[in-house]
Please model this.
Amino acid sequence: MSHADPRTDDAPDIPEHLERTNELLQRVLAEVSKTPSTHAIFVDAGYVYAAAGLLVTGTEDRRSFDLDAEGLIEAFIDKARTIFADSRLLRVYWYDGARRRIHTVEQQSIAELPDVKVRLGNLNANNQQKGVDSLIRTDLESLARHRAISDAALVGGDEDLVSAVEAAQGYGARVHLWGIEAGEGRNQAEPLLWEVDSQRTFDLDFCRPYVTRRSVTMYEDDGPAPAREDVRFVGAQIAAGWLSTRGRDALADLLPGHPYLPGSVDQDLLVEAERLLAHSLRGHAHLRRALRDGFWQHLQAQY
Model:
């Protein structure tokens, strides 16, 4: 008794299987083509302040200039929109440092911007950022792992960011390093430049509209220095004006940072005190402490 070859019976089904497989692949490819690619911008604020400040004003000291963060972020978004023409923006991540990770007034205003998320590391006693690089790595790696982004624009220069770049690339994301022109040499680590998929540098003309040097009136030290109690009184006087202008909500935000003041508040306090005293306090650390003591004493008495 003869038996039919099973391979002969199944042979007619092979073209049908291939046709169905091809149709399925075509549908998958069609869906993939409809899904837009996504990019995100990761900004190391410490790098931006130092590099842009030095390029435009000649100093890295944040107290010496103002940075229009909103305008600069919008410029970054516009640049990304041009570079990643067929991609949509997920959001901008703004990494900065703060005492006890408590937002300053400036950082609060940045956090309120649309499509922007502020992530804070700590500031140590020397005003150095701690923990920012690990935050960048965590976000970059997580977004790449979950296929939330296809491209990442990284604005920074620290060699510690190399591991963040490698982690994101390991999940298929492309990382593009953006930097700010250095007057001399480089302000980005070479190992970081080697690892990224592309590089772009923003020049003086790009940065100038967003950095403004603060006008500080310098007073001569020819006369006798003011008494400590006089300086404390001026500190309290300025605090009263600050409170009437900013309100109790701003006071509540400021108090948890005691005894430290945000850089912008501390600089404004110093400039106003020197104006009222008609004397420079730059070379008198004990008088500057007295000034802050008077400022804090008045604010705490009002809470």
